[in-house]
Every structure is written in C-alpha cells, then in structure tokens.
Predict the structure.
Amino acid sequence: MAYQRNMAKGKSMRLYYAPDQPQVRQSLVLHANVMESSGEPLSNGDVSARITMPSGQTETVRFTSVGDEWGVFDGRFTTEEPGKHQVRLFCR
C-alpha cells in the first residue's frame, strides 16, 4: 500500500489505512483520496477495493464518501488471516 503522502505515479487515487500494522481480527479503516481526470477532487463516485488474502480468497470493500469532503472516501475491513494482503483500489 502507498505511504500516506504519495500517490501512485500517473494515477489519481491514493489509498492508506490505520492502524499501520494490524493484527488478525482487527478492524482497519481504509481511506482513499480520489481525483477526477481533470485533477479536481471526485464529488461522487463508486469507490471500492478488492483485497486478496494470503490464502487467495478475495473480499470487496465498498467505500462511502466522507461528509462534505470531496475526494475523500472511507471503508472498513477486518483481517481474518495473518500475512501480506494485496489491495487494489477501483473507481467507476
């Protein structure tokens, strides 16, 4: 996952989470900053993340817009497996 201050090169989305080192069965808060192709913060969108666990199982997390803050979306995920998880962020 990207460090909180960095966006992927050439991309318009940033994903970060808390806590930084989650334990098994601990809930994580996922945060996404999403921009329009024009560079403006996204005001309304369908933001989700596909999480692939070490076992290969996947889970989709739907994000919701955060209040009046354009471009800010949050979601929650509770990890059930130890190890590295792959996270892919999507926006329609």
